[in-house]
Amino acid sequence: MITAKDIRRILLVSGWFMILTLPILGMRVDPLSDNILWRLKNVMWVGLGTVVLQSLPHLWHLYLYLQAGMIRLWHHLMGTPPHKIVEKTAHRDSLINRVITNPRQRAILCAVVLTLTIIYPQVVNEYQINIMIMAFLYIMLGLGLNIVVGMAGLLDLGFVAFYAVGAYTYALLNLHYGINFWMALPLGGIFAGIFGLLLGFPILRLRGDYLAIVTLGFGEIIRVILENWIELTHGVAGIVNIPGPTFFGLGLTPSQKILYLYYLMVLFVVITIFVVNRLQDSRLGRAWLALREDEIACQAMGIDKRRTKLAAFSLGAFWAGIAGVVFAAQNRSVYPVSFSFLESAMILSIVVLGGMGSIVGVILGALILILLPEYLRELSQYRMLFFGAILVLMMIFRPQGLISVVRRKYDIDSIKAEEKEGGA
Amino acid sequence: MHFDSQYFIELFASGLTKGSIYALIALGYTMVYGIVGLINFAHGEIYMIGAFVFFLASSLLTVLGLPMWAMICIATAASIFWAGGYGYTVEKIAYKPLRNAPRLSPLISAIGMSVFLQNYVMLGQTEKYLGFPEVIPEFDFLEPFASTFSSSDFVIWVTTVIVMLILTWIIKFTRTGKAMRATAQDRTMAELVGINVNQIISATFIIGSALAAVGGILISSHTGSIHYYIGFIAGIKAFTAAVLGGIGSIPGAVLGGLVLGMAESFATGYFSSAYEDVFAFSLLVLILIFRPAGLLGRAETEKV
């Protein structure tokens, strides 16, 4: 229940936020006259918003309290003995996890989703298809980063650098040597993977937070070089007129090209999911998970720490490189601006929102974070604000993400029960 | 090649200026790291917010017609107050709930906070560059050196030295400072001897933020413009400085800041200015490879 103390606290916190936001949201200097424009309405909204937000838990408690009271009243009136409240079983996996762990249901789910994806471009217009291609691209990026952050537990904040390497590999090779998309695809991936190795060698013995900042620095270095090495990259003007993917040398109309790219992306995403899924269950994948949980114990078990980390780093980079090539082919142009830190932050938000280490989660995260801003156009300027908030809120309230990873567990209880039955 | 000593001294002066600012921001990183073991990514944003608050407050006071010196004092106080407030609030919202979470969680939360604050200022203010008032007057007694360094360089050096002295005094001799050192050494033990650790952590964030605000005002007045993105690059560089000097070490942060400022100034002066940021990051990578504990830091031994 809400007590006077709670109300005082709510008002105090709201007042504090109003003071805090007073200069940034409440004032603005008119650039023409140097006069101050007051926008106190914004500050009032902040105050009101914080009051509402803080009241929510109290209201929820009130609701539960009333509900319990109503049920008791009902039983009292009907003369029935009140039911004992049955405790929900503690270990109930979420619906989606139950479906994925059941092979038959999983097969059905995959079939349905795949059919829907294949039909999708036939029922919507080109604009929607393009948005979906974007979403697929981010699924690939998200799954790549998921290897590094989710599985191996290495916080890579310069992931976008590898994406840039892939994109520029295709753009430059095409510009200078006329290499086509299909040749560039593996090359972009391999190149990015090599960059991952080069960066990985010196820094992987660093602790998590140092790793984060060095990768962040590396991401910025790549962007600065792309912007300033004008002879090679054309600087901020970027490289334009990059051809899209070819289809056995056949000429395609523009709308066919989009369809083609769409189905290619579906194929790439399916391959990515397949590979990542297999990796997860491989010796390497298990070594990553072990490394994430406890480095020292992991080393004691005889896992080569550096090699395992390097593998995660370069495989993640490889995926980003491939996504980069596709990005260049889809946009037909590359600019250094596309590879800023915010892009890395966005991919990280996808992984964090979906659930670190969870493939389904990352897919869901990418779909939510890419499609939602597209359909809520009016709110699109608040996109990055929203992404930042997601990172903070998810860490506080649901660090495992929307869909947590199914952990393989050795279920001792059920085995004991079986033994008992066998013994009796 | 002919050695141009005048040019060298100019680069030295500009390196000293840059280094002082990096040192001011790096102190915030290093203090927070020493106590909670966390890279406060949002620290650069606090620096940017400090500069914005000063800008708004000084504009308001100029409109009200206050004299220059009063305006500077009040606007600086406002900037420090709000920067401290933001630092305090960020800690309470984004880091405090995660104090016992796995290492990755507070880091991700910190990055989220940094992105959030950047966009918050961009949406609340503007995405354009704003002209920052020149608050530092030209001193007559510096006239003979005018070709080498400006008054604002001089003020930055002097302010930095004063701020460092105050900080050293706080940490060495006040109760809060002693409690801070105790908390940095061993948080559980500090709690056992009756130190309110939460309060001390808040105090650390507030002091660090205030230093960042001072740095923000000084550098913005020196360069003459502000932008919502300035905190990001400055933040990474100051972090580099903190690592360079040995993270967690306060004299280290100052030394690291100065070394980084000098290195950048000479590298841009003698090689190329376009790659200014690349030098700083390369230095960071090199330091981490060859001397991860930094210049003045102690190497941590891994305990099993």
Structural description of this entry:
The complex is a heterodimer of chains A (424) and B (304). Chain A has helices at residues 4-26, 40-78, 95-101, 103-123, 126-151, 159-177, 181-203, 208-228, 230-233, 254-281, 283-293, 295-300, 305-331, 341-354, 359-375, 383-397, 412-423, and strands at residues 27-29, 36-38. With 424 residues, chain A is an all-alpha fold. In chain A, α5 (126-151) packs parallel to α10 (254-281) and α10 crosses α11 (283-293). Chain B is mainly α. Chain B has a domain at 43-228. Helices cover 73% and strands 1% of the residues of chain B. Chain B has 11 helices and 2 strands, in the order ααααβααααβααα. Chain B has helices spanning 5-36, 43-64, 68-95, 104-124, 151-173, 175-185, 187-192, 197-223, 230-245, 250-270, 276-290, and strands at 130-131, 225-226. A two-stranded antiparallel sheet of chain B has the order 1-2. The chains are: A mainly alpha (424), B mainly alpha (304). At the A-B interface, α1, β1, α8, α14 and α16 of A face α2, α3, α4, α9 and α11 of B.
